[in-house]
Write a structure and sequence with these properties.
alpha+beta; hydrolase; 5 domains; eight-stranded mixed sheet; DUSP-like
């Protein structure tokens, strides 16, 4: 499977091959057909099958639409729009770190063709087709193929991007390059690949797969063509090397990088940390593991994980390699833990947890595990219960992993009803400690004033993390002086309102990546007979574009620009008056036509014929458009001007009538801006708003309940589209000005996060907490599940203590990474204050630890990069491991906001193994990377 990256012509060709739109079945029929075609999910995948990615939100909107059963519903999803899945709209490359079920759904080929034939695909977008491949005897949809940059040796500056499956052969890469660069069959060629060090390695074996050759996305592959005299153009030994060169290399053992196989930096980071645990590495280097391999443990991996790890350690500590390719180890891990199959980004701590468990079971000295009954303390002394628990643990689990990493903590549960206390002692392999969480959150929003002369303002607001939409409005009011009651909050995506929030909704439903706009609206409600109530209309901008005939009126109209929320009078609003209100709101970037642009004679004839007032005329008022200087106290138009109201009869089908003097026409549309779902009622008294029940509420509540939101709005409103002809838009619409905005002084504000000490995190770990409803405790006294209080205490610590900083926070509505700086000591971390085991039973030196390794995570939740700091057991020198690159560092570079997993060695163990020399500043690194100076860096 090779595919050259799409260009516009290729996209057009793909569109021409799209299924032609046909008669759309009823909603229930649609639901049944898609459900039937998706039944393929229940059977095993087959290699070569095609599956298609569809943006999650669009698919959810479609499900909502068909479940509602109303074809005229405002939940109509419009054409399929996968814009959120693409990194750019030129090469149509997928964003990194997309998650199935959160960002996209996978649909079988039949379901995709149904949907695209019924709804169409957003103009210009290619289908996202992916094939099922077989990796390690497991079939999976390959969402992220390998994207290589192909170049000719004679022209290294003009790469061609091509995609390959991990299961494709290197020979296919070569054939694709030959076809792309028009090399004749008679000419002899060969391939080179550029590695992380910048040198080139020859791909000698073209029969191996892309996976086996360790090719990864973004790598440069050079095709070289033999000269006519029989020589090869590459006669530069300083730019190329073969795999055998490493055999003559002699470096320091352990100072060896690991090649990134494609988003495997998480694995490399965990391996480098574990490789620098002295007693474990010595265990493998001295082959002591061979005597303890457990091939018959049903919980183990038949020794394969241990053997693969041993081979990796021996290569890394041989001193003969600058870097090695951990492909065999990656293959073994994927075979026994399918979650690590493929080349998605994962968590280094999760890989570490699997690896420690796998090594333990593969090296377990207990060949046959006996049944051990777990006993509660039942009032017995802690020392007795702890010793019993540890002995029981060792009867079933006895390995080098237990010797090195296992400790014991005390767990105390107290029933809130009867006061029953349960005490148990449980082993642990690492500590996952929480970080103090800030109760504040910084959110970026754009404020859109009712005054059309003011550009939108970007603001950074500090709000309660568990606050409501109303808190966001209150925070903005402090900067703008606009009352929160006159604000509406919306999520804008792809030129339309993705959601308009109610004031009582939680802020947790807004993600940091969402584009949030807060609009100033009229605060006027009906009070008394002579008062006028306003309604807020959502306004979209559309441009007519040439399009194929899909027998649907909404095709050929493309949304553009930013939508608006505009206050208009609820009663007696004519189409002509609405036109002038909107023209006024757009006046900052829409130029009014001059008198030279008008054809007065023809225009007058048209007006006389249809009994339509002149565009500039407002019944009972001036012929000029209203401006701020004409504003009255009852005005509902932006900037305070009086809203034009016309009590005369309105045209029956105005949106379909174009008036030459008018710059645009108006059309009622649904919430997606893609179909005519008219909600205007027109009669002899003008235009009035309907109160069609339920309209808008299915999108999450357009304006919500007036009693709670304090907003002047009826229960349902239409969406209005402003439709532009291309020539009129080009002539009168200033796109640069329309996209302009200003930054408020608060944009530079950064929420200061005070650093926390590692000891504070450990204190939080040992704090009393109440169990959650999803995880109750069964009280043997009450005979029912209870939300008991729970407290963990450290009883016995291991030789090597792994501390996992819980930077990733997941809730039902939100996910975030905590970038708090945790201050941790390099030496002399003292745990004596946290261990509750009586001091007279343990030597004091058993509580002091020195740092030996750190797994770092840079970036956010969806993308990121893992690296490692590690102290070499032989030299005592710290190094920075960034995949295949290794460089020396000083101790003052180790502490950062990226620190994620900490490895500490007990001081008595370090002295027993080998005294470590004093640390000194390293020499400058030549040609190798250094750790980033801040938390921001490129991600892989």
């Amino acid at each position: 499977m090779a595919a050259v990256a799409a260009d516009p012509a290729a996209v057009d060709a793909a569109e021409d091959r799209e299924p032609q739109r046909k008669a759309v079945p009823g909603l229930e029929s649609q639901r049944r057909q898609i459900k039937s075609s998706e039944s393929g999910r229940e059977r095993p995948l087959r290699a070569g099958e095609s599956w298609f990615l569809v943006e999650q939100h669009w698919y959810q909107q479609w499900e909502l639409y068909v479940q509602g059963g109303d074809q005229d519903s405002s939940t109509f999803p419009g054409c399929i729009n996968n814009a959120k899945l693409f990194e750019d709209q030129v090469n149509w490359r997928l964003k990194k770190g997309l998650v199935e079920g959160e960002d996209y759904v996978l649909l079988p080929e039949a379901a995709w063709h149904y949907l695209v034939s019924w709804y169409g695909l957003e103009h210009g977008q290619p289908p996202i087709e992916r094939k099922v491949v077989e990796l390690l005897s497991i079939q999976e949809v390959e969402v992220y193929p390998v994207e290589l940059l192909l170049v000719q040796h004679s022209d290294m500056d003009t790469p061609c991007t091509a995609q390959f499956s991990h299961t494709d052969s290197v020979d296919l890469v070569l054939r694709t390059a030959r076809e792309q660069f028009l090399v004749s069959p008679q000419e002899e060629t060969r391939l080179w690949v550029k590695n992380a060090e910048g040198s080139f390695e020859r791909l000698c074996n073209t029969r191996v797969t892309v996976l086996d050759a360790a090719l990864k996305t973004g790598q440069l592959v050079v095709m070289e063509t033999r000269n006519k005299d029989g020589t090869w153009p590459s006669a530069q030994p300083h730019t190329t090397k073969s795999a055998s060169e490493d055999e003559n290399f002699q470096g320091q053992p352990g100072i060896c990088g690991l090649t990134n196989l494609g988003n495997t930096c998480f694995m490399n980071s965990a391996l480098q940390c574990l490789s620098n645990v002295p007693q474990l590495t010595e265990y493998f280097l001295k082959n002591r593991y061979l005597e303890e391999l457990n091939f018959c443990n049903p919980l183990g991996m038949k020794g394969e994980i241990a053997e693969a790890y041993a081979d990796l350690v021996k290569q890394a500590w041989s001193g003969h390699h600058r870097s090695i390719v951990p492909h065999v180890f990656k293959t073994k891990v994927g075979h026994f833990a399918s979650q690590f199959l493929g080349y998605q980004q994962h968590d280094s701590q999760e890989l570490l947890s699997f690896l420690l468990d796998g090594l333990h079971e593969d090296l377990n000295r207990v060949k046959k595990k006996e049944y051990v009954e777990l006993c509660d303390a039942a009032g017995r002394p802690d020392q007795e219960v702890a010793q019993e628990a540890w002995q029981n643990h060792k009867r079933r689990n006895d390995s080098v992993i237990v010797d090195t990493f296992h400790g014991l903590f005390k767990s105390t549960l107290v029933c809130p009803d009867c006061g029953n206390v349960s005490v148990t002692f449980d082993p642990f392999c690492y500590l996952s400690v929480p970080l103090p969480v800030s109760h504040k959150r910084v959110m970026e929003v754009f404020f859109v004033s009712m005054d059309p002369r003011r550009k939108p303002e970007q603001h950074r607001l500090v709000v309660p993390k568990k606050g409501k939409i109303s808190d966001l409005c209150v925070a903005l009011a402090k900067h703008t002086g606009v009352s929160p009651e006159r604000m509406m909050v919306a999520d804008v995506f792809s030129h339309r309102f993705y959601k308009i929030y109610q004031l009582e909704e939680s802020l947790s439903s807004i993600l940091d990546r969402d584009d949030i706009f807060i609009y100033e609206v009229s605060g006027r409600s009906a009070i008394g007979e002579n008062s006028r109530e306003d309604v807020v209309l959502p306004i979209y901008l559309r441009e007519r574009t040439p399009a194929r005939d899909y027998n649907n009126s909404y095709y050929g109209l493309m949304l553009f620009g930013h939508p608006l929320l505009v206050s208009v009078p609820r009663d007696r609003l004519s189409w002509d008056a609405l036109y002038h209100i909107l023209l006024y709101r757009l006046s900052r970037y829409v130029t009014r036509p001059s008198s030279d642009d008008e054809d007065d004679g023809d225009e007058k004839d048209l007006e006389d014929k249809d009994n339509i007032p002149k565009p500039g005329h407002v019944a009972g008022g001036s012929s000029q458009d209203p401006g701020p200087e004409q504003a009255g106290p009852s005005s509902g138009v932006a900037g305070g001007s009086r809203a034009p109201v016309d009590n005369s009869a309105g045209p029956s089908h105005w949106p379909q009538r174009a008036r030459r003097k008018h710059l645009f026409t108006l059309q009622t549309v649904n919430s997606n801006g893609t179909s005519d779902r008219s909600t205007f009622n027109e009669d002899t008294h003008g235009v009035s708003f309907s109160c069609e029940p339920g309209l808008g509420r299915r999108e999450g509540g357009f304006l919500g309940s007036r009693a709670h939101d304090h907003l002047p709005s009826p229960p349902a409103q239409p969406y209005i589209a402003i439709d532009w002809e291309p020539e009129m838009k080009k002539r009168y619409y200033d796109e640069v000005e329309a996209e302009g905005y200003v930054k408020h002084d608060c944009v530079g504000y950064v929420l200061k996060k005070a650093p926390v000490r590692l000891q504070e995190c450990i204190e939080l770990f040992t704090t009393v907490e109440t169990l959650e409803k999803e995880n109750p405790w069964y009280c043997p006294s009450c005979k029912q599940h209870q939300l008991a209080t729970k407290k963990l205490d450290l009883w016995m610590l291991p030789e090597t203590l792994i501390i996992h900083l819980k930077r990733f926070s997941y809730t039902k509505f939100s996910r975030e990474k905590l970038d708090t700086l945790v201050e941790f000591p390099i030496r002399d971390l003292d745990f004596s204050e946290f261990v509750i085991k009586p001091q007279n039973e343990s030597a004091p030196e058993l509580y002091k630890y020195d740092l030996i390794a750190v797994s770092n995570h840079y970036g956010g939740l969806r993308d990121g990069h893992y690296t490692t700091f590690a102290c070499n057991k032989d030299s005592g020198q710290w190094h920075y491991f960034d995949d295949s690159s290794v460089s020396p560092v000083t101790e003052n570079q180790i502490e950062s906001k990226a620190a994620y997993v900490l490895f500490y060695q007990r001081q008595d163990v370090a002295r027993r193994l080998q005294p470590q020399p004093a640390s000194s500043d390293p020499p400058a690194s030549l040609g190798s990377s250094s750790p980033p100076n801040s938390e921001f860096m490129d991600v892989n």
